[in-house]
Amino acid sequence: MAQNVSMEDFEALLNESFEIDTPAEGSVVKGKVIAIEAGQAIIDVGYKMEGRVDLKEFANPGEAPSVAVGDEVEVFLDRVENARGEAVISRDKARREEAWDRLEKAYASEERVEGAIFGRVKGGFTVDLGGAVAFLPGSQVDVRPVRDAGPLMGLKQPFQILKMDRRRGNIVVSRRAILEESRAEQRAEVIGNLHEGQAVDGVVKNITEYGAFVDLGGVDGLLHVTDMAWRRVNHPSEILSIGETIKVQVIKINKETHRISLGMKQLQDDPWDSVEAKYPLETVHTGRVTNITDYGAFVELEPGVEGLVHVSEMSWTKKNVHPGKIVSTSQEVEVMVLEIDPSKRRVSLGLKQTMRNPWELFAETHPEGTVVEGEVKNITEFGLFVGLPGDIDGMVHLSDLSWDERGEEAIQNYHKNDVVKAVVTEVDVEKERISLSIKALDDSFSGAVEGVKRGSIVTVTVTAIEDGGIEVEYEGAKSFIRRSDLSRDRAEQRPERFQIGDHIDVRVTNVDQKTRRLGLSIKAREIAEEKEAVAQYGSSDSGASLGDILGAALKTGDE
């Protein structure tokens, strides 16, 4: 019985010794390289067990294998014995197990890990983290998109673990997080050395429509297009190019967002400081049209100084016309300074003021009474508009079309584009109006009544008899004598006592050149003759009667 107990104890002790000394499958064991042959390393893992490992498993990505006979290495024991009686071992799996333990500790403490990019996969790259393979998304390679990752391949560098799952064997790392962290430190250091108003050198890194980003040595600042020059800049590429080194001034630093605003024009003299001295009011200067809008055109007097020519100051004659039809961009024009407001940095300019007022010029060259010729530009219900020299119009009112026809009838004789002659009757420069008369061209009345004045006695011919009086004619000029002017004696104020063709003497009471009318009166002639007779042959004091006086006057006349 005792012998049986001792045998059982011995068997138990033997089994216990096997369990302690024989390595378990699926664990990492230490071994010694005893030979290298046929691209493999033969490793003794103890207990008379040997295994083979490909030399490539001893190499880091992009490097040659580093192993020699006698080296002690750790390997992963897959199986104790295979068909050839050898242990199945792996250096890669040993490194992986070791790496996972190390990486889990780094992930927990948010420490950086070292690795090397060794391959490209869909959506990113593969990274060797000392035995464990991680995925590096394309968006996590750099702070800016990377077009060529070739220079980064095989290069040992730090990474930040974003996510890891040992059960699934997934690890996601970021290189960008490391760069951003170092950039933030660098930015804080650079910004700490900058102050507003400081002039620094920078390199243009990027150009956009609204400005340029300038590298100040680890930190970028924005140079807005409006701060590049005092003059108008349509696009930053007009004056800057990528890679160019420029001198800028720090305008503003936002300590919270680390945003830096830069300026170039602030390092130059402000041209507005001397605008009032260089451009006195009402002086004329040559400028270049830089921009055209619906309300006017901007003209550059010098780099950084622009003035506005309002649409109302562009032309004397072209009203309600878009400025683009008067001037064009880049055109050089002469302008007059109308107003300056340095505080608002505004200059009001005039284009038409550099040219003579066409109405003033017309008034000088075409005084009243001048005959002009022009084309009928427009026909309205109140008259004709006629084109005149200087690109201006004159108007012939209905009442100035004809002596003989009513205006509404006379205007029917004219058509647009007809060329007509007219007489200038009035020029109003302030109101920009020119009055013309076509009927004034007919000067026959003036010729007919030449030498005739108020009080003259003329002989007229009766041409028509009406109830209200008689129509008469003198040298082709017609006139009308009212019933009340036919005689001094009321009983003789009868139109029917005259016959068409009768010649009668009348006294001129009025000469109206505008209406081409003579004021005539038989009654006024008789009264004038009576006064003359009284003055010559008698007076009221002599006692002679009016009949005696007239009789004496008539007798003298007969003799």
TrEMBL record:
Domain S1 motif, chain residue ranges per copy? 26-92, 110-176, 197-265, 282-352, 369-439, 455-523
Q: Which UniProt keywords apply?
A: Repeat, Ribonucleoprotein, Ribosomal protein, RNA-binding
Q: What does this protein do?
A: Binds mRNA; thus facilitating recognition of the initiation point. It is needed to translate mRNA with a short Shine-Dalgarno (SD) purine-rich sequence.
Recorded GO CC terms: cytosolic small ribosomal subunit
Q: What is this protein called?
A: 30S ribosomal protein S1
Native organism:
Celeribacter halophilus
From the UniProt record, give one GO term of the biological process aspect. translation
Q: Known Gene3D superfamilies for this protein?
A: Nucleic acid-binding proteins
SUPFAM superfamilies xrefs: Nucleic acid-binding proteins
